[in-house]
Amino acid sequence: MAWPVQFLFRGLRTVGLVLLYYVFSIGITFYNKWLMKGFHYPLFMTLVHLGVNFCLSALTRRVMQCWTGKPRIILTWEDYLRKVAPTALATALDIGLSNWSFLFISISLYTMTKSSAVLFILFFSLVFKLEEPNPFLILVVLLISSGLFMFTFESTQFNMEGFIMVLLASFIGGIRWTLTQVLMQKAELGLQNPIDAMYHLQPLMFLGLFPLFLYNEALSLSASEKLFRVTELSPLLYSLVMLSVGGTLAFGLGFSEFLLVSKTSGLTLSISGIFKEVCTLVLAASLMGDRMSNLNWLGFAVCLCGISLHVGLKTYYSKNKVPSVRQLSSKSSELQLPLLWQNGDKCEDSAADDYNDEEEEQEISLH
């Protein structure tokens, strides 16, 4: 293939994968917010999403096994409960609280507050010694913190209860992604492929979130005409279909992130995630009527500068220093890359390119 044609093909492929990632990432945010206007049971919604994710990941594992002829990894009960359970519990609380907050706050405030997850990820990365101390990290923390303060200062749509929920979700998200990095770096577990990780995480996530659902929503939901007291079948089917669509979007988001990282690089997804936040806020202002002052926009810009600085530092040190974390060889014929999530979405990988004959190694590092 001629060089210009190959270059054009790679460019179009990257743009297509980024757009696919945007569709699922932005789509699920607006979809959940829209659904919460008429269905005030976010924890039940999250449980349905987990069930759909488990079914789709199990189906994908079956297809991959038939395609490759190799059996997929199945953990022992001891490894499952001791090593996977903490990550699953943190992930369940992060997602549950995030969805719960949509009952109280706007998309713009949610997006901005969720960006603070980078701070907590940095903190727990230092605690677990996954990140080396660096003086520039202080500047990153100051930029993101001051940006968050300016964004929420005198906000006309500020809600303390929802803000605390998202902030708590971001804090737990820091624990979540740190544990996820540790989990996916343990080569002996064999969970480097995110489909396998999703398959093993979903059941424990469901069990971890179920008690909170019983405490907060079970009684109200059982008396609601949305599901259990329906008088006709069509409203029940409509509710189940709408909930399942959200679960499909959640699975599509994880898979689109995986494809983008495996076909391009972790840096591509990191930069795409920054622009995704801009797109989300612009759409929230135009479609949802979110009101933002000049100070709020300035705070958002300052926060993005902090996140961009963090991305740049990670890229610089990964190229100029010996990686401090375990690396995975890309020689396997299977897609064995972990996901990279932005904002509480957040793992960083270098991927082997289809057109590159060199053998590369992929470093898992938190974002």
UniProtKB/TrEMBL annotation:
Residues 348-367 are annotated as: Disordered. Residues 350-367 have a biased composition (Acidic residues). The chain crosses the membrane at residues 12-32, 38-59, 103-128, 135-153, 159-179, 199-216, 236-255, 267-289, 295-317. Residues 15-309 form the Sugar phosphate transporter domain. It is a multi-pass membrane protein. It holds the Pfam family TPT. PANTHER family: SOLUTE CARRIER FAMILY 35. Its main location: membrane. Signal peptide: none annotated. It is found in: Membrane. One of its GO terms (cellular component) is membrane. Keywords: Membrane, Transmembrane, Transmembrane helix. This is Solute carrier family 35 member C2.
